[in-house]
Amino acid sequence: MTKLENISMIKEANVYFDGKVVSRTIFLPNGDRQTLGVMQPGEYTFDTNEAEIMEMMSGELEIRLPGETEFRTLNTPESFNVPANSSFDLKIKTVTDYCCSYIKA
């Protein structure tokens, strides 16, 4: 999906890692929550409370998901799932555009 219709958005930005990762929270008409953001080059570890689907829209990056020992290259656009109450590591090589969907339990 490249265009979102009839959404509501929280104005305040979510800012992480000294401003190198910034996103906005949106709500879809059915109440589902997503964040749309941009990551600058760097290495990041993200912790999750809820299960997530991460859609990497553009950029060059490597990922290491829970249970994996090595980083692997993602070929954008590509998505991956992250379990609740876990963490994952990213090595962002170029500016990367993403959408995170939170999975209701």
TrEMBL record:
<comment type="function">
    <text>Catalyzes the phosphorolysis of diverse nucleosides, yielding D-ribose 1-phosphate and the respective free bases. Can use uridine, adenosine, guanosine, cytidine, thymidine, inosine and xanthosine as substrates. Also catalyzes the reverse reactions.</text>
</comment>
<protein>
    <recommendedName>
        <fullName>Pyrimidine/purine nucleoside phosphorylase</fullName>
        <ecNumber>2.4.2.1</ecNumber>
        <ecNumber>2.4.2.2</ecNumber>
    </recommendedName>
</protein>
<dbReference type="InterPro" id="IPR014710">
    <property type="entry name" value="RmlC-like_jellyroll"/>
</dbReference>
<keyword id="KW-0808">Transferase</keyword>
<dbReference type="InterPro" id="IPR009664">
    <property type="entry name" value="Ppnp"/>
</dbReference>
<dbReference type="InterPro" id="IPR011051">
    <property type="entry name" value="RmlC_Cupin_sf"/>
</dbReference>
<dbReference type="Pfam" id="PF06865">
    <property type="entry name" value="Ppnp"/>
</dbReference>
<comment type="similarity">
    <text>Belongs to the nucleoside phosphorylase PpnP family.</text>
</comment>
<keyword id="KW-0328">Glycosyltransferase</keyword>
